[in-house]
Amino acid sequence: MSMAGVFAAVVRRELRRAARSQSEALYPLIFFVLAVILYPFALGPDPALLARVAAGVVWVAALLAASLSLDTLFRNDYGDGSLELVVLSGAPLALVALAKASAHWLLSGVPILLLAVPLALALELGGTTLVILLASLALGSACMSLIGTAVSALTVGLRGGGMLLAMLILPLYIPLLIFGAAATSNAALGLGAAAELYFLAGLLVLAVTLTPWATAAALKIRMG
Amino acid sequence: MQRFHRQHQATVPAAASARLEVRDLDVERGARSLVSGLAFDAAPGALIQLGGANGSGKTSVIRTLAGLVAPAAGSVHWRGEPIAGNARFHAELAFVGHLSGLCGELDARENLGFQLALARAPARCTIDEALARLDARRFARRPVRQLSAGQRQRVALARLALFDCPLWMLDEPFTALDAATRGQLESLIDAHLDADGTVIIATHQLFDSRHALTLLDLGSTRR
Questions:
Q1: Which of residues 9-38 of A touch B (CB under 8 A)?
Q2: Is there a domain that residue B154 lies in?
Q3: Structural domain contains residue B163
Q4: Which domain holds residue A203?
Q5: Which domain holds residue B151?
Q6: In CA terms, which of B19, B115, B127, B211 is 20 to 30 Å from A145?
Q7: B1 in a structural domain
Q8: Which residues contact A158 (CB under 8 A, 6 or more apart)?
Q9: pTM summary value
Q10: In-domain check, residue B6
């Protein structure tokens, strides 16, 4: 058992599982696209209005899609007993948690980033603003995966865990939403967005440092 | 069929420190007390059965002994050290719970490979050899989801052959096994005891062993 070996084994297992049960990975992405597409129907086709709300729309849809996909993060492992074997294996749980969050980001954050490009363009958002939106979303989605992993570990195995997870997690995502949306609206107005991006990067550093330990503690509690 | 020898294990001086010491253990589930004042020693070569009727707390007790659940009171020591956060205990314990611990989308090899990558315990053979010991190689390439309950249990038990762990804790290991596999598991347990391993089994079923068995009837210690 090496640290890198544990990390790689967890990520490889998650990717392999996603490749074999694609619906689980695909549904949140389809939800993301549909949620973004709903807004033009509600707000009308005015390009100026759509351009103004596009960043917020993409951000909110990304938050909802991430919280959907987090529900299954530990549920299968809990149900089939592999989570208790991981706890018993003596492997560093914080490292397992970090690997789980990384795999979640690869399977949810990265596809959302890619999908955000055509969706933002369709909502009349392009140029520098799009670049800033993607940068903020990249930092933000990594934070979402890390924070979400901890909350997901806390609610695994509870009845109605999915709804509880969403209720616990969406308030925690508000700071990300504030900085992400502010960065993009600043860029749209031709102002600098560096401050907001730095804040998001700072939150990411905080999340990388703290949430794996929180996840590890939560998993141990949920075994009892 | 059953050959119980209800005598306490003769102490084996060699590797005598590989001993599980359970003292005044209280196990609760929710607010309900399942077991109180459980105390025993599991020396190398000891075969201990946690018996009792359904609901007597066999699973809760073995999960407590494995360190998955904190006891309400009392202590569990391995080689003289408390088991909580004990790296050596994790490296030397092989646990087969009543859940298989296998991911349904992955096949047997991938599941065992994952366990091997995370384990502190050393492997004593290859994954294929371990699967062969339980006659599980035929279906080692099929996703575990597609296997029958008995086949899945064989893959789960292959962990015992794969890892070199002196202490085994098995929770209802005979569930869903056919007669042949049951015999294989019994001989696996005997071989482990021959090699001075320790086996703790939670089951209400009777099984064969060449070795002396200590039966702890949880039904009788229940309050």
A1: 9-10, 13, 16-17, 20-21
A2: yes
A3: yes
A4: 3-223
A5: 20-221
A6: B115
A7: no
A8: A164
A9: 0.89
A10: no
Tell me how far apart the alpha carbons of residues A168 and A150 are, in angstroms, rounded to a whole number: 11
Is B99 in CB contact (< 8 Å) with chain A? yes
pLDDT, one tens digit per residue, over A172-211 is 999 999 999 999 989 988 898 999 999 999 999 999 999 9
pLDDT for res A157: 85
Residue type, A17: R
Cα(A44)–Cα(B40) distance, integer angstroms: 74
Stretch B157-184: mean pLDDT: 92
When pLDDT is cut at 50, 70 and 90, the band that residue A6 belongs to is very high
Sort out which chain A residues have CB atoms less than 8 A from B113's CB and list them: 9
The shortest CB-CB distance from A80 to any of B70, B104, B110 is to B104
A197 within 8 A of A183, measured Cβ to Cβ? yes
Q: In angstroms, rounded to a whole number, what is the distance separating the alpha carbons of residues A71 and A86?
A: 19
Task: Decide if A209 contacts A144 (C-beta within 8 A).
Answer: no
| Set of chain A residues whose Cβ sits within 8 Å of the Cβ of B118 | 1, 6, 9-10, 86, 89, 91, 96
Report the CATH number at residue B71: 3.40.50.300
Task: Please give the average per-residue pLDDT across A92-106, as a whole number.
Answer: 96
Q: In this complex, how many residue pairs, one in chain A and one in chain B, have their CB atoms less than 8 Å apart? A: 88
